[in-house]
Design a protein that fits this description.
It is a single chain. The protein is of the alpha+beta class. The protein contains 4 helices and 4 strands. It is flat and about 55 Å long. Bound molecules: FE2/S2 (inorganic) cluster. The site of FE2/S2 (inorganic) cluster (FES) has 12 residues, from helix 3. InterPro entries: CISD, FeS-contain_CDGSH-typ, MitoNEET_CISD.
Length: 124
């Protein structure tokens, strides 16, 4: 039978034991982000409303392309969506190949051989 002293000593030991949270952090917030994947090979036309904030999917894993659905977090990509505010109400073509040089807008990169040869769902 353990005495009160033993229990108190054990409790104090637990308090002094440093919890290792680094493995948990590395799992949910990887230091090296994974690469974006090609979601589609053509842009999606969307009507943006002036003053409204949008979150454009950077990782390419969203099921609600071209916008973020939180998949970047649940698949632990280490990537974040691009938040932007529409300056005016207009229809724009938003990139879904994730290779554009002027995100979130399409710049025609999806027509390149590099994107056209890539598999949907794989990185460039
Ligand atoms: S789901 Fe792709 S950035 Fe959020």
């Amino acid at each position: 039978m353990r005495g009160v002293g033993a229990i108190l000593r054990r409790g104090a030991g637990d308090l002094n034991t440093r919890r290792d949270v680094s493995s948990w952090l590395a799992r949910w917030f990887p230091r090296t982000p994974v690469r974006s994947v090609v979601a589609l090979k053509t842009p999606i036309k969307v009507e943006l409303v002036a003053g409204k904030t949008y979150r454009w999917c950077v990782c390419g894993r969203s099921k609600k392309q071209p916008f973020c659905d939180g998949s970047h977090f649940f698949q632990r990509t280490g990537l974040s969506p691009l938040k932007f505010k529409a300056q005016e109400t207009r229809t724009v073509a938003l990139c879904t190949c994730k290779a554009t040089q002027r995100p979130p807008y399409c710049d025609g990169t999806h027509r390149s051989e590099r994107v056209q040869k890539a598999e949907v769902g794989s990185p460039l």
